[in-house]
Amino acid sequence: MFYSALILGLLGSFHCIGMCGPIAFVLPLNRENNFKKAGQISLYHLGRLLSYSFIGLIFGLIGKGLFLMGFQQRISILVGVLMIVIVLIPARVFNRYNFSKPLYSFIGKVKSNLGKLLKNKSNKALFTIGILNGFLPCGLVYMALVGSIATGHSTLGALYMFIFGLGTVPLMTTAVYLGNILSISIRTKIQKVIPVFVILIGILFILRGMGLGIPYISPSDASLTISNNSVECVDINSSD
């Protein structure tokens, strides 16, 4: 399942160049010392990864609740269907029902704090910028969060989002060093391909939930149950 998080991250990074790129281009870095610059970029990414992991933990808990309610691995089928439906429904339909409207106040505060921090060249500021950046609304992040629900566990949900974040690091780092490296036309073509991969990932989630006994793609119901029970045992033992 976690390879889907990496694929979403790698593909999503092209989307991120358009959404979060403006932040990456103006990061308050030490441009005179390459070693310090690399360290500051790493702090920025670390902040993003921590935010993604925290959000993944929360959504993993939601998935765990659904599992305990009896959905078990079948939630994977629902997640896959949801991914495909979101991609196929025209954007204008979602624009009509702005689901992030209740978060406008929070997002406004995040953007306000980002504006202040972008004038501060301290390492703490770079780390905090990364954390705040991770909470900005993004369609591909929403897709990854749907995937974290399918893990059915808080720790696995956090790990899913962490891997997603890792997938965005290479291109985002390149963007910091080279600026706007892709033309608008190339980014537009890439973004047209992203929905296709999201649908493929959705199909993989559906196959996983069907428990067809195909190794790595659609494990049997029994192996999925054993896997989830093993995670629970690890948590219980670690709490002693």
Describe the structure.
The protein has 240 residues and is mainly alpha-helical. It has one domain (2-238). It is built from 11 helices and no strands. Helix 4 (75-88) runs antiparallel to helix 8. The chain is globular, with a radius of gyration of 19 Å. Residues 224-234 have low confidence and may be disordered.
Would you kindly provide a brief summary of this structure?
The chain is an all-alpha fold and 240 residues long.
Mean pLDDT: 76
Helical content band: over 70%
What percentage of amino acids are in beta strands? under 5%
Categorize the overall geometry.
globular
Helix/strand/pairing category: mainly alpha
Q: Regions with pLDDT < 50 over 5+ consecutive residues? A: 224-234
What is the terminal-to-terminal distance? 29 Å
Major sheet attributes:
none
SSE succession: HHHHHHHHHHH
Jot down its keywords.
11 helices; mainly alpha; 240 residues; globular; 78% helix; 0% strand
Indicate the topology:
Elements: H1 2-19, H2 21-25, H3 34-71, H4 75-88, H5 91-96, H6 104-117, H7 123-133, H8 139-150, H9 154-178, H10 184-210, H11 221-238
Helix pairs in contact: 1-8, 1-9, 1-10, 3-7, 3-8, 3-9, 4-8, 4-10, 6-7, 8-9
